Amino acid sequence: MDNFLLYFELGLRHILDINGYDHILFVIALGIIFMFRDWKRVLVLVTAFTVGHSITLALSAFDLIDYDHRKIEKLIVLTILVTAVANLFRKKYSENKKLVSMNSVLALFFGLIHGLGFSTYFKTLLGREKSIIGPLFAFNIGLEVGQIIVVLAVLITTSLFVNLAGVRRRDWVLIISSAVAGIAVSFLI
User: Fold this and answer.
1) Which of 15, 81, 109, 168 could connect to 184 by a Cys-Cys bridge, CB 3.0–4.6 Å?
2) 101 by DSSP, 3-state: which?
3) CA distance 188 to 168
């Protein structure tokens, strides 16, 4: 149980760590197009991301893949930028079921990339663990809980600005997505 809590906390902190805010930015860009009533759809997206993340963590932990970390870090920033920029060109948001399906595939794919970015550190943490299954499961549960916390914050903030403050939904998406895209571009530069 101690090991579970250790890896659970690691997954949780991996998402919620303000110094590693690339994941937070990605989840914000992913969720900003949704309203609180769409929470189930957003949960599908973040779960798809977690699945992709855990696949590459497992492949890396078993030494089945090798890659250049510098390229992966740039790809992670590109996933944030692509997601934020795509929001800028959307005419409709959460009502479109095809959009949610396409976003789920992208979230899964982008999760694969983000998982690679963390895999070397994760392998180091595993050290002499006899099995990676338990630590990987606990880490990903923590990751999922952290993403849900970020998504809830995004959905609540969106509801406050759109429903209570009267900000037009499209304007809200444009403002937040532009800010996320701007931060991603600054990372690339």
Assistant:
1) 81
2) helix
3) 30
Question: Which single residue is written with the structure tokens 């952290």?
Answer: 146
Q: How many angstroms separate the CA atoms of 55 and 111, rounded? A: 9
C-alpha distances out from residue 53 to 43, 118, 153, Å: 15, 9, 22
Residue type, 125: L
Total domain count, the chain: 1
What pTM was estimated for this model as a whole?
A: 0.89
The one-digit pLDDT tens for each residue of the chain (189 residues) are 678 999 999 889 988 988 878 889 999 999 999 998 888 888 888 899 999 988 998 888 888 888 888 899 999 999 999 999 999 988 765 555 665 677 788 899 999 999 888 887 887 877 777 788 888 899 989 999 999 999 999 999 999 999 999 999 999 999 999 999 999 999 988
Closest CA to 82 of 13, 29, 6, 145: 29
State the amino acid at position 89 in one-letter form: F
Distance (Å, rounded) from C-alpha 154 to C-alpha 34? 9
